[in-house]
């Protein structure tokens, strides 16, 4: 048998097995992994060659790839799923025992779905049931990119996919990017399911049958409900109460609610409110509950009736039935109820959230109190066109499943209505730990997002710790926004605020924003603060309250700020020394420090800082040779500084060679990492630096702390032979990270945009 033959092959000595591995197909190479490990043979070179031969591209950040087996199989899965790789193109892939999606799926931890979501349709097909089960255990990051509007069948496949991978799977991060004109319904559908919400009445089906995992949960819940009902029945009988007299009691209503929202999902129950004979209850609200006519194409998404008491509460929308019946029932059940559901989460007024939910991961929604029935919907402009009922449906009818911990939205415009919906989801998203909002055109809508996060922060089980906001325009000064965020979210550990340009309507003088100096900030847990100013002046006086409230701050990054006066940087250093005793990392990027040599030296002397970055700060623009010597001598005396990053400061060859003296025999420096990327370094200068470094190592008996050197975007392509020799000798001393940068093309690009 094949298994017996494989056992004989895997038992070969290591040197024979090493020669055999390149001759195996992917199927057998994967099966040989354990045998190779036992024999002490690495399969990494084979997988790397497979990548080069099959993918024919250089992967980004290839130097950081630790497992080429996983990298290959994960990319292979994605390429096959999206139809961009033909398995017959290489003999190592064309094996009759090899099922491309099935055998590679256990290695997929990150998956991207694009365009019309063809990948979602493929993965939820009957033939790929086992593939989907594998992904439910392995997938951690689910990305959506360049999405387009899709039809009902595709949306149904997406619902099933999200339900399996998020609600009953291991996905912990959902990312969406590059969606210039988002389909609002599809967007909020993904957001809602990522937050763990979906219709209590939706029979999420798996290839024509109800979800087995939901069925098991519902069976346990129904047994518990039946047990409680039996106990209540015994108590009622002992009290002499008849069933008829208790028909409308609160206890009976509660029992019915439990049966509806927690009971079994199969078989589907017909909702009489949707019958055409009914003249009082509009179809809009029956659709909200997930109900539809038996003739509906989405009847698989319907399983629970609506209690009559609930239907009477929804009566304010009466009068829309005639318009509803003129629509296609199939289209209405799949589209209109989705509108009604997703915009239920957009129930917020300007003063704050009215809807609050207390939920725990994997548990049903318990304490959601919506605004009164009949109140106008403020969350969706389209509600008026459909009679204004979208905001009436109670989210108590939405069941809560497992939710993700990281949400990222890149280059997706978020309207006011979408921000309201997201805000309401955020208010109860207790599993959320990281939120990234990048280039969403938020402007003043950021206040709506903060409103939801503020409500979330009050929840006892809140885990939210990281917020990153970046956009083209800032609607208020960066420091003022930082203060607003920290006032609302004192438990944050990481805050990043980044803007490209100032809003043209905003005044240029900070004095025009009095709230900057008036708002009080509670003591925060902030450890990392990153601010990218849209060429705003850095006023230390306005940053002072933030720093005072952030005694735990360990990392501070200031990007693209201007210094309004020569004394400003010195004042900032004094404040940092006084207010942030735990600061370990300080970074300046694109801040002109050419005239602040004294402050630069003071920073390099700071005994508390372990990492300092001066990136594109024009350090040596107007400096003398004495300034470079002072930098070297200061670093030599600092035994606590571990990392010095100097990219983009025009070091050139002679300054790079001088930096080698940091590791001379008389140095007490503990510097481990040096970054000299984008510094006009040529191969001969790098070789001279290497020789000088080797001399210092020899003088110190072969021991120096230096371990990492970064050389990105330097002019090493001008003499390939000299560069290779320098890199070869350097790699014997430390880990070197560089790239194959074309300096001539980069210079041409620079000239073309001047």
Automatic annotation (TrEMBL):
Region of interest: Disordered: 222-320
- Ranges of compositional bias, category Basic residues: 306-320
Keyword match Phosphoprotein: yes
- What InterPro entries does the entry give? Leu_rpt_41 (IPR026137), LRR_dom_sf (IPR032675)
Sections of the chain in a coiled coil: none
**Composition bias type Low complexity, residue spans:** 287-302
Q: Which domain of life is it from?
A: Eukaryota
Annotated keywords = Leucine-rich repeat, Phosphoprotein, Repeat, Ubl conjugation pathway
Q: Does the keyword Repeat apply?
A: yes
The cellular component terms of Gene Ontology attached to this UniProt record, alphabetical and capped at eight, are:
cytoplasm; nucleus
Name the residue ranges with Basic and acidic residues bias: 222-241
Name of the protein in its database record: Leucine-rich repeat-containing protein 41
* Taxon lineage: Eukaryota, Metazoa, Chordata, Craniata, Vertebrata
């Amino acid at each position: 048998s094949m298994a017996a033959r494989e056992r004989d092959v895997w038992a070969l000595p290591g040197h024979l097995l090493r020669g055999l591995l390149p001759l195996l197909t992917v199927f057998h190479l994967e099966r040989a992994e354990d045998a190779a490990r036992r024999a002490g043979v690495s399969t990494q070179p084979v997988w790397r060659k497979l990548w080069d031969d099959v993918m024919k591209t250089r992967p980004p950040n290839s130097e950081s790839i630790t497992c080429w087996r996983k990298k290959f199989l994960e990319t292979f899965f994605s390429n096959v799923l999206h139809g961009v790789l033909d398995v017959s193109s290489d003999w190592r892939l064309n094996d009759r025992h090899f099922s491309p999606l099935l055998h590679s799926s256990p290695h997929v931890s990150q998956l991207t779905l694009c365009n019309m979501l063809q990948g979602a349709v493929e993965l939820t097909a009957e033939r790929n049931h086992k593939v989907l089960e594998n992904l439910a255990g392995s997938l951690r990051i689910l990305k959506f990119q360049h999405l387009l509007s899709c039809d009902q069948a595709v949306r149904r496949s997406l619902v099933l996919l999200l339900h399996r991978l998020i609600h009953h799977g291991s996905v912990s991060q959902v990312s969406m990017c590059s969606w210039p004109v988002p389909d609002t319904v599809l967007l909020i559908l993904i957001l809602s399911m990522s937050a763990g919400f979906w219709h209590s009445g939706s029979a999420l089906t798996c290839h024509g049958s109800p979800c087995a995992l939901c069925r098991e949960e519902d069976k346990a819940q129904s047994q518990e409900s039946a047990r409680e009902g039996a106990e209540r029945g015994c108590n009622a009988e002992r009290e002499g109460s008849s069933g008829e007299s208790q028909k409308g009691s609160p206890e009976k209503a509660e029992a019915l609610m439990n049966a509806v929202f927690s009971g079994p999902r199969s078989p589907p129950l017909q909702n009489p409110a949707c019958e055409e004979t009914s003249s009082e209850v509009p179809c809009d609200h029956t659709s909200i509950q997930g109900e539809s006519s038996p003739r509906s194409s989405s009847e698989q998404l319907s399983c629970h009736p609506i209690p009559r008491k609930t239907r009477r509460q929804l009566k304010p929308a009466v009068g829309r039935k005639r318009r509803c019946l003129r629509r296609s029932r199939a289209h209405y059940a799949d589209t209109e109820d989705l509108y009604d559901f997703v915009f239920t989460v957009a129930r917020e007024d300007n003063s704050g959230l009215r809807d609050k939910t207390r939920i725990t991961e994997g548990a049903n929604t318990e304490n959601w109190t919506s605004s009164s029935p009949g109140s106008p919907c403020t969350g969706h402009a389209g509600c008026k066109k459909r009679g204004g009922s979208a905001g009436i449906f109670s989210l108590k009818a939405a069941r809560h499943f497992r939710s993700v911990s990281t949400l990222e939205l890149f280059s997706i415009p978020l309207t006011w209505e979408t921000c309201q919906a997201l805000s309401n989801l955020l208010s109860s998203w207790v599993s959320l730990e990281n939120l990234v909002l990048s280039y969403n055109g938020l402007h003043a809508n950021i206040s709506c997002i903060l409103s939801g996060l503020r409500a979330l922060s009050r929840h006892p089980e809140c885990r939210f710790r990281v917020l990153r906001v970046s956009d083209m325009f800032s609607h208020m000064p960066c420091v003022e926004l930082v203060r607003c965020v920290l006032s609302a979210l004192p438990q944050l550990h990481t805050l990043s605020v980044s803007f490209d340009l100032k809003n043209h309507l905003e005044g240029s003088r900070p004095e025009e924003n009095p709230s900057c100096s008036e708002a009080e900030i509670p003591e925060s847990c902030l450890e990392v603060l990153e601010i990218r100013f849209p060429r705003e002046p850095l006023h230390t006086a306005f940053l002072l309250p933030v720093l005072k409230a952030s005694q735990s701050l360990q990392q501070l990054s200031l990007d693209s700020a201007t210094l309004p006066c020569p004394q400003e940087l010195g004042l900032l250093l004094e404040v940092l020394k006084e207010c942030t005793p735990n600061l370990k990392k300080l970074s300046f990027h694109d801040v002109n420090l050419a005239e602040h040599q004294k402050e630069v030296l003071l920073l390099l002397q700071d005994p508390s800082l372990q990492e300092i970055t001066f990136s594109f700060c024009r350090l040596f623009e107007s400096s003398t040779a004495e300034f470079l010597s002072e930098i070297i001598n200061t670093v030599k005396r600092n035994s606590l500084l571990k990392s010095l990053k100097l990219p983009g400061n025009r070091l050139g060859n002679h300054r790079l060679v001088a930096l080698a003296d940091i590791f001379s025999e008389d140095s007490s420096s503990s510097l481990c990492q040096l970054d000299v990327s984008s510094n006009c370094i040529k191969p001969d200068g790098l070789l001279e630096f290497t020789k000088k470094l080797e001399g210092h190592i020899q003088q110190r008996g072969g021991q120096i702390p230096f371990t990492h050197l970064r050389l990105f975007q330097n002019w090493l392509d001008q003499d390939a032979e000299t560069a290779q020799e320098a890199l070869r000798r350097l790699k014997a001393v430390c880990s070197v990270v560089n790239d194959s940068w074309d300096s001539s093309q980069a210079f041409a690009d620079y000239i073309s945009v001047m």
